[in-house]
Amino acid sequence: MSVLAIIPAAGWGVRMGGDTPKQFLSLEGVPIFIHTLRKFAASEVIDNILLALRPEDMERVRVEVDREHFSRPVRLVAGGPSRQETVARALAEAPAGTEIVVVHDAVRPFVELAMIQRVVEAARKDGAAILGILSVDTVKQVERQTILGSIPRERIVLAQTPQAFRYPIIREAFDRAASDGFVGTDESSLAERLGCNVTVLMGSDRNIKITKPSDLPLARLYIAQERERPQG
After folding, report:
1. How many Cβ atoms sit within 10 Å of the Cβ of residue 204?
2. From residue 141, how far is each of 103, 133, 135, 152 by CA, in Å?
3. How many other CB atoms are found less than 10 A from the CB of residue 113?
4. Residue 9: per-residue pLDDT
5. What is the pLDDT of residue 88?
6. CATH value at residue 35
7. Which domain holds residue 77?
């Protein structure tokens, strides 16, 4: 029974601005998505990797991936017009015998190997698990420009990836969402609709999602720090 990592990389990244999708932006001379793939290829708990992207990006990405000579198989699959459709298409390509599916943002290159292992182990035990961090800000519930109330911070978790699931759970979650016309903001939200209990493990402030220009200087700092210490 194997563990499959799905890395969706089909988005445009409009918040970043410019003509280059954020996952293809260079970070110290290497596209961001390659930094992310390196982490999953280095993980001992990952057996297969599917990188889901726009069909028009296949050729350029294949060149980058082949150059890396990854120790884990990395297969390219065509994504869809949305994040949810992209992951659904990758799920349809899951190898036979897949036990656990791990979904991770292509633009979160600073995930630690220990985090990947912990979320896989939790999903194997509990069925579904995600990473999350506590909110340090006061959270308000609003309607338009009016505050309806404050939500206690101890009840708030900011979701991160990787998010991991037993294959039957995530397969049913996506099938049910498609039949109901439901669109979620992450994979966990689809599993939650099934009544599935999702375990939350502590993530990291370093596990940032690179989505806007102001994230890049911090990303460069983290890259420099990783080069100075072993990854774990």
Report:
1. 14
2. 29, 19, 14, 11
3. 17
4. 94
5. 98
6. 3.90.550.10
7. 2-228
